[in-house]
Amino acid sequence: MKSYAFSETAIAASNRRVKRLRYWGASLCALFVVLGLYLMLDETGWAARHLHVSHDVKLMICVLPLVLLFNLLFGPMFRQGSSKSLEAVITGFKVDTSNDGVDINFGMGFSAHYAFHEITRAEEPSIGAGLYLRTANRYNYAALTRSLEDFQDFKTELVAHNIPIVKTLIPPNWEEYLFVLMFCSSLIGSVVLIGAKGRQSMLMINFAYAVLLGVVGFLIVGARANHIAQLKWARFGALLPALFAVLSFYL
């Protein structure tokens, strides 16, 4: 049995990258908050004359980024000393191999076990920074980063258990990335349609789109719930666009 985890150097580099992204995200959120306040307060200026935006949409433009900004600045993932802090999650990430399979601790209580006989292959894309342990189910896989210490030794262990390492160009399951874009577009669409004139037909189309998207997302996330028990309830998050679409009928 052998354990693979992040080195101190990798943890420090990851923290620096996340800190930069955090500052950029916070700056962008602050910009949207200022924009929302400007739209709400400017009742006679250029925005009022040229941008016909309802009060509810202005409020959303202001409030939603404000909530995200607060989380980026004071949330538990970024609070020093918190057991849920990003550094604690990265430090807790560990991969253990044994005679019967691979045990992955993702941090924050998320863990999974993949028996060697379940893993059909390991894909290593040129574009990307990881190794994907694939099973017979397309949506049930585990992604591991190359930043793990002794990463080459882990690949050697897989080969020793007759698991082929397949070189690919891009990460697998491109449709999952498309799903994320469609997920976000549905949420934005529901917000934009709030207060729109003659919107009944558009609301119905958006609701049907959101329900279809939710069902697909529920099935995709549910495929991984067999190995990651904590995703059992997380898959209901895929139904969030449908909830937003329903609320847009009454706002």
Q: What is the strand and helix layout of this fold?
A:
Elements: E1 2-5, H1 8-41, H2 46-50, H3 55-74, H4 86-92, E2 94-97, E3 101-107, E4 110-115, E5 121-125, E6 130-134, E7 141-145, H5 151-160, E8 165-168, H6 174-192, H7 200-225, H8 231-234, H9 240-250
Parallel strand pairs: 5-8
Antiparallel strand pairs: 1-2, 2-3, 3-4, 5-6, 6-7
Helix pairs in contact: 1-3, 6-7, 6-9, 7-9
Protein model, in words:
The mean pLDDT is 81. The chain has nine helices and eight strands. It is elongated, with a radius of gyration of 22 Å. A hairpin with a 4-residue loop joins strand 5 and strand 6. The strands form two sheets. Strands 1-2-3-4 form a four-stranded antiparallel sheet. Strands 7-6-5-8 form a four-stranded mixed sheet. The longest helix has 34 residues, at 8-41. The chain is of the alpha+beta class.
List keywords for this structure.
alpha+beta, 251 residues, four-stranded antiparallel sheet
Assess the beta-strand content as a share of residues: 15-25%
Oligomer: single chain
User: What is the topology, as strand order, of the major beta sheet?
Assistant: 1-2-3-4
The gyration radius over C-alpha positions equals 22 Å
Q: What is the tally of beta strands?
A: 8
Large-scale geometry: elongated
State the separation between the terminal residues, measured CA to CA. Answer: 57 Å
Please work out how many helical segments DSSP would assign. 9
Largest sheet: 4 strands, antiparallel
